[in-house]
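User: I'm putting together a small comparison set for a docking exercise, and I want a reference complex before I start. The sequence is below, and the ligand is FE2/S2 (inorganic) cluster. Could you produce the 3D structure with the ligand included, as structure tokens?
Assistant: Of course. I'll restate your input first, then give the structure tokens for the complex.
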Amino acid sequence: MAEVIANVEVAPNIYRLKASGAFPGRMGQFYMVRAWDSYPLLSRPLSIFNRSEEGIEFLYQVKGEGTKLLSDLRAGDELQLEGPFGNGFPDRAIKPGGRIAVVGGGIGIAPLYYALRSWPDCDVYLGFSKEPYLTEQFKAATQGKVNVNVGGFVLDEVDLHAYDLIVACGPEPMLAAVQQKKLLSGSGVEVYVSLENRMACGIGACLVCSVKCRDTRRKACTDGPVFLAEEVIFG
Ligand SMILES: Cc1cc2nc3c(=O)[nH]c(=O)nc-3n(C[C@H](O)[C@H](O)[C@H](O)COP(=O)(O)OP(=O)(O)OC[C@H]3O[C@@H](n4cnc5c(N)ncnc54)[C@H](O)[C@@H]3O)c2cc1C
Ligand code: FES
């Protein structure tokens, strides 16, 4: 059980929620979150936006019942957290001088901020359909460049040949486009996508989060949510 420290609307329907406690977790992992007893039945998966020994933060968009209930939380309210789950972003060392980029579309920026702790000079590409948010925080957290695109295609601005490793999170059409771009580029860059499939149990027991991959079906909650882009069959 955690106690809510703050729950602030940073843009229309986008909230930054902070709860107290030394919750562990690596970049790209997620927690199953709830702030209700029996209804809705299921907890909701949210990526780690930021964490420290004092607290953990989530950045979420209000979509339906669960996230609406989260948005009603106030300082002092209780939050139930289970996790961390998932494989997270690849954290092996890349070759000395290797270049990394993270690419986020909309609320897909949520898991990328925490990655800047591990990759403090990586380049950041943020795409928004309307009003951008938290761009100044991203700028302050990296020594790399931060490219913000509003209303266009953020991917158009990413030169795959400039990087050794790219991690992308966002709507599925964006992730499918990243995969296509990688396949057509002939570049040696390793591209990973972080999927946000619907989930139920979060621990590999229900198959709700099944992902079609080239060799077999995998579970986004335990085998992912981060996959090598070319492994995933989109659509
Ligand atoms: C590993 C993982 C990490 C995630 N991290 C974040 C995060 O950091 N911030 C964040 O805002 N969201 C994140 N999500 C998505 C988030 O879990 C859903 O938006 C949330 O569960 C919706 O719950 P709800 O009760 O508000 O909506 P519901 O009432 O369950 O659904 C409302 C509407 O949203 C659609 N919807 C629900 N879940 C998803 C989904 N996963 N993908 C696409 N459409 C969906 C439904 O089809 C429906 O139309 C993550 C998902 C996964 C799997
Ligand atoms: S959410 Fe149940 S198996 Fe992944």
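Residues 199-202, 204-209, 219, 221 surround FE2/S2 (inorganic) cluster (ligand 2) (CB under 6 Å). DSSP finds four helices and 15 strands in the chain.
User: Thanks, that's exactly what I needed.
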